Amino acid sequence: MRAAVTLEPWSDGDLALLTRLMGDPGMTEHLGGPESPEKLRERQGRYESLEGGDRIFKIVEVASGAGVGSVGFWTKEWRGQQVYEIGWMVVPECQGRGIALAASAQAIELARREDGHDLMHAFPNVENAPSNAICRKLGFELLGPCEFEFPKGHLMTCNDWRLDLRG
Ligand SMILES: CC(C)(COP(=O)(O)OP(=O)(O)OC[C@H]1O[C@@H](n2cnc3c(N)ncnc32)[C@H](O)[C@@H]1OP(=O)(O)O)[C@@H](O)C(=O)NCCC(=O)NCCS
Predict the structure, then answer these.
(1) pTM, to two decimals
(2) Residues of 23-53 as b/e, b for ≥16 C-beta within 10 angstroms?
(3) 96 CB contacts (<8 Å, ≥6 apart)?
(4) Under 8 Å between Cβ of 118 and 164
(5) Every domain of the chain and the residues it spans
(6) What is the pLDDT of residue 115?
């Protein structure tokens, strides 16, 4: 069953959810592995103090009011241009219900309304089937595989997907 979701700004009470997302081996299989408690606290701090047009949202399931994931876009220097990079994560027990697709569509609409960068990219690992499917379904254009460093010092092969926010 498709889940209705809404987006809320990430808050200082969301470290536990962040730990379930970026601190879990299964969840970070295509993201270079789980972050340490120290790295998670640093990330939480960054999420609480984002500047400019960068945004991180908690995905909230309307029916239960529970936080079930994160979606966000942030500025990235990519091939000499300032663009947005978008990312999405959904807790395991809620996957396969259209949550990431619905939440990302909402985030993209917010990015379109703001006077930020014109282009948005997503860089899912080439082996991350659901994440590549989401790019396709959201109308991103596949530019092809690229070498991508995340986290620092960890290289992987990702697909470079691009969306024109002004298109
Ligand atoms: C990627 C992720 C966010 C997808 O979340 P989700 O809420 O399950 O995604 P959705 O239910 O919206 O699925 C979207 C589409 O992906 C496709 N899909 C889902 N699971 C799939 C799978 N295992 N294999 C292939 N395609 C799949 C489906 O086509 C689905 O669309 P449809 O249901 O309309 O046919 C989730 O798997 C996740 O959090 N993974 C760990 C973190 C991560 O890798 N994030 C991405 C970093 S780039």
Answers:
(1) 0.96
(2) bbeebbebbbebbeeeebeebbeebeeeeee
(3) none
(4) yes
(5) 5-164
(6) 85
Q: Is 83 in the pocket of ligand 1 (CB under 6 A)?
A: no
Is the CB of 104 inside a 6 Å radius of any atom of ligand 1?
Answer: no
What is the CATH architecture of 5-164?
3-Layer(aba) Sandwich (3.40)
pLDDT at 84 over 70: yes
Question: Ligand 1: does its nearest atom lie under 6 Å from the Cβ of 72?
Answer: no
Ligand 1 center to 93 CA (angstroms): 12
- Residue 98 to residue 90: CA distance in whole angstroms: 10
Please tell me which residue, 1 or 11, carries the higher pLDDT value. Answer: 11
How buried is residue 98: exposed, middle or buried, by Cβ count under 10 Å (0-12/13-18/19+)?
middle
Terminal CA-CA length for the chain:
31
Residue 147, pLDDT above cutoff 80: yes
